[in-house]
Design a protein that fits this description.
globular; alpha/beta
Length: 148
């Protein structure tokens, strides 16, 4: 299965994501800040990164930009529940900074399943679950290029 890195300052978000990903059989690493996330990625790598946009010490945009300087292939899922700007516009910027997919929190099982299917071209849970994610996905930037 995949080696997933979660970079988010929210303990609850990390805990829930970690529990779900482990249940699916993935290895999971965590970081609470952008700088810590960069360090963990540099040391351990990852097959997929989930990153919050608004964090202390270094925001997700700068972290994405820094990761992209050393690795253009790892899929990065940018996520946020809001901020001062319109969240849809702001998440769109993450694609320009190098995110593969941008989603608005809260994330659900269906959204995670769609992300895994998009990134890895596989379904890790119930194949009968299908949803229209157009309201949750801001953009999907040819995830297959990220795998190449």
């Amino acid at each position: 299965m995949a080696n997933i890195l979660i970079i988010d300052d929210c303990t609850t978000t990390r805990m829930l994501m970690r529990a779900y990903f482990i249940l699916l059989g993935h290895d999971v690493g965590e970081a609470t800040t952008g700088i810590e996330g960069e360090r963990k990625f540099s040391e351990n790598g990852a097959d997929l990164i989930f990153i919050d946009i608004f964090m202390p010490d270094q925001d997700g945009l700068q972290t994405i930009r820094n990761i992209r300087k050393t690795n253009i292939k790892v899929p990065i899922v940018a996520m946020s529940s809001g901020g001062k700007d319109n969240i849809t516009d702001f998440l769109t910027y993450t694609i320009e900074f190098g995110a593969t997919i941008a989603v608005e929190k809260p994330l659900t099982k269906v959204i995670f399943d769609q992300i895994f299917e998009t990134i890895f071209n596989e379904r890790f849970s119930c194949p009968a679950m299908v949803a229209n994610l157009s309201t949750n996905f801001v953009s999907i930037k040819n995830a297959k290029d990220a795998k190449a």
